[in-house]
Amino acid sequence: MKATAKAHTNIALIKYWGKRDESLILPMNNSLSLTLDVFYTTTTVTFREELFQDEFLLNEQVIRGEQYNRVAAFLDFIRRETQATSLHAEVRSTNHVPTAAGFASSASGFAALAAATTRALDLSISDQELSRLTRLGSGSACRSIFGGFVEWHKGTEKDGSDSYAVQVQPAEDWDVRVAAVVLSETTKKISSREGMKRTVDTSVFYPGWLKSIPRDLEQIKDGINQRDFEKVGSISEANCLRMHATTLGANPPFTYWHDATLRVMQGVQAMRERGISVFFTIDAGPNVKVLYLPEDETIVQEMLRQIPGVHDVIVSRSGQGVTYL
């Protein structure tokens, strides 16, 4: 009863921001992401008779507190839903993602955990079912089951049975590059979950954000199908800015941006003025992800590295879905 799985993180181009059900992690809107090949988590799950409780090791460190509780609760859910075992598990994860700094480490983490757990229990489930299950650990993780461009359907059923991700376009079909601009690797002060809830409950801008999503989704999927990078990039950037605007309308207001975040955004806009096709997007954190095409990789990297406050620039391509090792 042992299995190892590898899952990559993803960057949302049409953002997931807000839940209609906190316990089932059901989103207020559909979202669309690109899976990234450079950031990933590898997890081994082993069910053992001698364990009296679940054990969780991350990067060789024993984990306690909230992180442990989330993993243990997710394992409890799988045990309860599948009735495949009553045994506790040893979970060993290696995370190749800066944790809690806006690079969606929970997406690759819970996708790898769900895949390894179901494989260790020898459960025969489809990728769609695995995506729906993974959602219960972390919302964005349901998109990391698949590679390339992926859409997460919010669903309408109260039990969440129709809320899962589907692949829009495989990774190998279009070589879109993403430069992850590292500005800070420190843990953010306001978690994504806390930030979402405050925004949904109090932001005067949130209704306008929701109203904009259907058109953004329709246009960006059309851009993906036509390989229209300008269209995909501009919609992604505008959607990002609208999402972050909702946090400024919350009570009390907050932002995930640092001074260097704004400098990178301005740097990307300056590159466009020079005729370089490049766009930015930012999740719930200060770090910026910059979208561009392969032919512009050298100039984009050079210009990003010159911006004050940039610690590193990590290049990623479109990544694959979950794999088993």
From TrEMBL:
Q: Which EC class does it fall in? A: lyase
One Pfam family assigned to this protein is MDD_C
- Give a GO biological-process term: isopentenyl diphosphate biosynthetic process, mevalonate pathway
What are the residue boundaries of the Diphosphomevalonate decarboxylase-like N-terminal domain, all occurrences included?
Answer: 7-165
Q: Name one GO cellular component term.
A: cytosol
**Keyword set for this entry?**
ATP-binding, Lipid biosynthesis, Lipid metabolism, Lyase, Nucleotide-binding
Q: Where is the Mvd1 C-terminal domain?
A: 181-306
GO molecular function annotation: ATP binding; diphosphomevalonate decarboxylase activity
EC number(s): the record gives 4.1.1.33
What InterPro entries does its record include? Answer: GHMP_kinase_C_sf, Mev_decarb, Mev_diP_decarb, MVD-like_N, Mvd1_C, Ribosomal_Su5_D2-typ_SF, Ribsml_uS5_D2-typ_fold_subgr
Q: Which Gene3D superfamilies match?
A: 3.30.230.10, GHMP kinase, C-terminal domain (3.30.70.890)
UniProt similarity note: Belongs to the diphosphomevalonate decarboxylase family.
Fetch the NCBIfam families from UniProt. Answer: mevDPdecarb
Q: What is this protein called?
A: diphosphomevalonate decarboxylase
Gene source species: Lentibacillus populi
